[in-house]
């Protein structure tokens, strides 16, 4: 008498049976660059949250001035003997706060105006003209002017960066929402008496949600670069640390040319965030596109 062992396995959903979000996540997980970049961004967020536990706030003076990287100071010290690693860790917190806060405001303004321009035809022309004019302005000189007039602070940096970041979001959201306004279910919503606000929030906003996800990541990384540029010019918050302020201190003290470690590590942090954000957005777009993702 022979006995046969039967094993049961949990049924797995076929790609056609998955929801669009599940198919996107499944394709995104297969992209090593996308997953690795997302892990880098997540690590930076964790460092920003746990900064007080990872390093003491860099303040005061130290006795070890311009010491190269060593076991005691892995990133070296600056011209005042402060640990550069602690500066980079605390700079991660402020840079990420400014990046995501300004990105949130820019996305909020850009999505609202983009959906409004696509849905309300009478407002399309003036909003589009406002976007074109805003994109044609010299952004960096205006950011410097506004930041210098208002005064350096974290709030000022967030408001200034958001003020000059929303037009591109508006243009992208408007182009995506325009294709949705022509679909039959939007006309059906108007026919049954749905309010304009209900149609925009119920039908147009979910349709542009994937674009918002990409815009948040890219806008945040660009905001970090803008903050670094303003802080490097001396327009950052003097009472807090950011990656741009580390570079500003190195330039002001003359360590920019004699102590490479004072500029290398904050520059690498900025580069790592920008590259990771770009790769995440590319991987996400590929995962959403049925022509490029693999089932």
From TrEMBL:
Annotated localization: Cell membrane
Annotated keywords: Cell membrane, Membrane, Peptide transport, Protein transport, Transmembrane, Transmembrane helix, Transport
Recorded topology in the membrane: Multi-pass membrane protein
Every ABC transmembrane type-1 domain range: 92-281
One GO term of the biological process aspect: transmembrane transport
The keyword NAD is assigned to this record: no
Similarity comment: Belongs to the binding-protein-dependent transport system permease family.
The name this protein goes by in its record: Dipeptide transport system permease protein DppC
Source organism of the structure: Devosia equisanguinis
Source organism phylogeny: Bacteria, Pseudomonadati, Pseudomonadota, Alphaproteobacteria, Hyphomicrobiales
Gene of this entry: dppC_1
């Amino acid at each position: 008498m022979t006995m046969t062992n039967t094993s049961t396995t949990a049924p797995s959903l076929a790609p056609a049976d998955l929801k669009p979000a599940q198919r996107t996540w499944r394709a995104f997980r297969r992209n090593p660059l996308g997953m690795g970049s997302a892990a880098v961004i997540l690590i930076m967020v964790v460092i920003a949250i746990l900064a007080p536990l990872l390093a003491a706030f860099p303040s005061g003076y130290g006795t070890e001035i311009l010491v190269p990287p060593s076991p005691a100071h892995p990133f070296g010290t600056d011209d005042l003997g402060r640990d550069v690693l602690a500066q980079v860790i605390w700079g991660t917190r402020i840079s990420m706060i400014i990046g995501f806060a300004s990105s949130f405001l820019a996305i909020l303004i850009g999505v609202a105006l983009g959906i409004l321009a696509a849905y309300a035809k009478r407002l399309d022309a003036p909003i589009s003209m406002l976007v074109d004019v805003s994109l044609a302005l010299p952004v960096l000189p205006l950011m410097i002017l506004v930041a210098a007039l208002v005064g350096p602070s974290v709030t000022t940096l967030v408001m200034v960066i958001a003020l000059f970041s929303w037009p591109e979001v508006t243009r992208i959201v408007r182009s995506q929402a325009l294709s949705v306004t022509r679909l039959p279910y939007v006309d059906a919503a108007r026919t049954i008496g749905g309010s304009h606000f209900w149609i925009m929030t119920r039908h147009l906003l979910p349709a542009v949600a994937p674009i918002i996800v990409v815009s948040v990541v890219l806008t945040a990384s660009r905001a970090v670069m803008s903050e670094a540029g303003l802080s490097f010019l001396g327009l950052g918050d003097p009472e807090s640390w950011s990656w741009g302020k580390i570079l500003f201190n190195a330039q002001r003290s003359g360590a920019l040319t004699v102590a490479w470690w004072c500029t290398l590590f904050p520059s690498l942090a900025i580069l790592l965030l920008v590259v990771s954000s770009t790769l995440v957005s590319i991987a996400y777009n590929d995962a959403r596109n049925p022509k490029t993702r693999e089932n």
